[in-house]
Design goal:
Strand content: under 5%
Structural class: mainly alpha
Radius of gyration: 33 Å
Number of helices: 26
């Protein structure tokens, strides 16, 4: 039997089966664990030891340190985990990833002659496990049962792929060129480069270690050749985190650098120590063949030892990563919180979308003040650049958040569906508030360019209305951010007062126009601004009511029915209404009883 092109095809096919099985099993385990896996990872990172434990457990469950690191990059990019918190998770993930190699060593490739014992060997048992998985998949009616089927089939295919790879490389044992090749790889630098390159290409240290374990069954690979390759494999696995961090925040890129520095510095330390001992004392097994168990054990030894070494120096890793990715002057995009990685975990995705909509509320509030504050003070210059930046963000946020919400997978609970509906309503209202603020800003720009000015009476009336709308907007944003029903309840009675202000201001300004106290040039902009202010408050009322209805568990979001039939008939509404009438109507000379 010789190694030929067919053997190469079998090797590649076996690798494909191995990676597919590992991925299928990992995804099945992750889905079976549910969204609590990521939520727990997010919350249990208060200290480095808890973070390490969670990184280890999560990686053992999903069978991939790359997947865990990518998840952590997503958390840091979204701002729900700090760079320092991520270090412990990454250390734990590097230990957790060694479990795959330890599982693969269970199949020692020898037969016992006993049929029952041979059937229990992983490479033989794999076919039975795949059969069981397929049967479960065919009979499954629930998503959770199909996840279990994926775990079974993935586990079986993993070992079948390993068996195919071992069979394809078996003829290499008789090739002297193969032995010469690995003798050359005993050069530590070359071995590290090969291990790094192969792992970077297939983006999985578990898969590349699996290939090395398959090759070790030929009996040609020595410890001296395997050790540098294993160290290089740990460096090469960092490529996935690097690719994941591209386009992310600076802290996301720093998280990838933490992963890289851990493996790079650890590999350098191991190389120096191992080769120093070899050239002074010498290892008796140095030129002996390594087996799958030896590869698994050294892989585990490296990651456990490096983790212990780095635990007291996590701050150093953070400093190195911060030095490598300096802050610069580029402002972070608030919409970076919309992490695509969270789309399969509705609780996390909705939480991030809610934070982004809160950013919209803040931008709308800032633009309101940028548009209205210069109305009453000649010392406040209009900041057009800041205004345009906020307006551009609001327009972009409405589209991107809306798209993100529609792409969230596996929304099953009623509460999550209600939260999604509330967000779709609220983000539209916040964007419209920005549009009306833009109307005011544009009209006042034209007004100033024409060197026009409102009369003192008109300014006083506008000031009262702007103050009322500004307070309504402040409470709306606060109520939305904190999900406070009590704060949101104060918006609707204030909106009633703003409606009254609108009617009074319109009628008074028309009287001034009729008596020639004002001109048409100032009269029309005044009425337009009053209209825009009233519309801003209408949208504040909508958002506040959505917040209340979400908090109270309403099945549908109906602002008109709520405002007319429920809250307006309460004593609380009447008291709030009288309070705001006294606060704002008296500023324009109207007593609460006259409203």
């Amino acid at each position: 039997m010789e190694f030929n092109m067919l053997s190469v095809v079998q090797l590649i096919g076996g690798l494909a089966l191995f990676i597919y099985g590992m991925t299928t099993m990992g995804k099945g385990l992750e889905r079976a664990a549910g969204s609590k896996l990521e939520k727990t990872l997010e919350k249990m990172t208060g200290n480095v030891f808890k973070a390490l434990l969670m990184g280890l457990v999560v990686t053992m469950v999903i069978q991939s340190s790359s997947a865990t690191t990518v998840m952590v990059v997503g958390f840091v990019n979204a701002g729900i985990m700090s760079l320092r918190q991520s270090v412990g998770v990454i250390l734990g993930a590097n230990i957790g990833t060694t479990i795959t190699a330890q599982i693969l060593r269970l199949d020692n490739g020898t037969g016992s002659g006993n049929l029952l014992m041979d059937m229990l060997k992983p490479s033989n048992l794999a076919y039975i496990v795949v059969l069981a998985g397929v049967i479960i998949m065919m009979l499954a009616k629930k998503r959770r049962t199909r996840d279990i089927a994926d775990i079974f089939t993935g586990f079986g295919i993993l070992f079948i792929g390993m068996s195919v790879m071992e069979g394809s490389v078996a003829p290499l044992a008789d090739l002297p060129q193969f032995a010469e090749l690995f003798a050359a790889i005993s050069n530590p630098v070359l071995g590290v480069l090969i291990g790094t390159g192969v792992t970077a290409i297939i983006q999985s240290s578990s898969a590349s270690v699996g290939i090395l374990q398959a090759l070790s069954t030929t009996g040609v690979i020595s410890w001296s050749a395997a050790i540098p390759i294993i160290l290089g494999q740990n460096i090469g696995t960092c490529i996935t985190a690097f690719l994941s961090s591209l386009g992310g925040s600076k802290n996301a890129r720093r998280t990838a650098m933490v992963h890289f520095y851990f493996n790079l510095i650890g590999s350098i330390i191991f190389l120096v120590v191992i080769y120093a001992i070899q050239y002074t004392v010498g290892f008796p097994f140095w030129d002996s063949p390594i087996d799958k168990g030896g590869i698994a054990n050294f892989h585990t030894l490296f990651n456990v030892t490096c983790t212990i070494l780095f635990l007291p120096f996590t701050g150093l890793l953070v400093k190195l990563a911060t030095w490598s990715v300096p802050s610069g002057e580029v402002q972070e995009d608030p919409l970076a919180k919309l992490e695509p990685r969270f789309l399969t975990t509705p609780s996390l995705a909705l939480e991030q979308a809610q934070r982004c909509i809160a950013e919209m509320g803040d931008a709308a509030k800032q633009n309101f003040h940028l548009a209205t504050d210069p109305l009453f003070s000649s010392n406040i210059a209009p900041n057009e650049d800041a205004f345009r930046e906020h307006e551009s963000f609001l327009d972009r946020a409405e589209v991107e958040i809306g798209r993100y919400l529609t792409n969230i997978h596996n929304i099953r609970s009623v509460d999550q569906r209600r939260q999604t509906a509330e967000m779709m309503h609220s983000l539209s209202d916040f964007e419209k508030i920005g549009d009306y603020a833009q109307n005011i800003f544009s009209r006042m720009e034209e007004f100033r360019q024409a060197e026009l000015a409102f009369s003192p009476a008109a300014k006083r009336e506008l000031r009262a209305m702007c103050d009322a709308v500004g307070e309504a907007l402040e409470m709306t944003v606060e109520g939305y951010v904190t999900r406070s029903v009590s704060v949101s309840r104060s918006v609707e009675p204030l909106e009633e007062v703003v409606d009254t202000l609108k009617e009074r201001l319109k009628s008074r300004h028309i009287e001034r126009l009729s008596s020639n106290e004002c001109t048409m040039q100032t009269g029309i902009p005044f009425l337009d601004i009053v209209h825009d202010l009233e519309k801003i408050c209408d949208h504040c009322s909508n958002i506040a009511i959505y917040t209340i209805q979400l908090g109270e568990g309403a099945e549908e979001f109906d602002t008109h029915a709520y405002a007319k039939k429920e809250y307006k008939s309460t004593t609380q509404f009447a008291e709030k209404l009288r309070f705001y009438q006294q606060k704002y109507l008296t500023q324009i000379g109207v007593q609460p009883g006259e409203a």
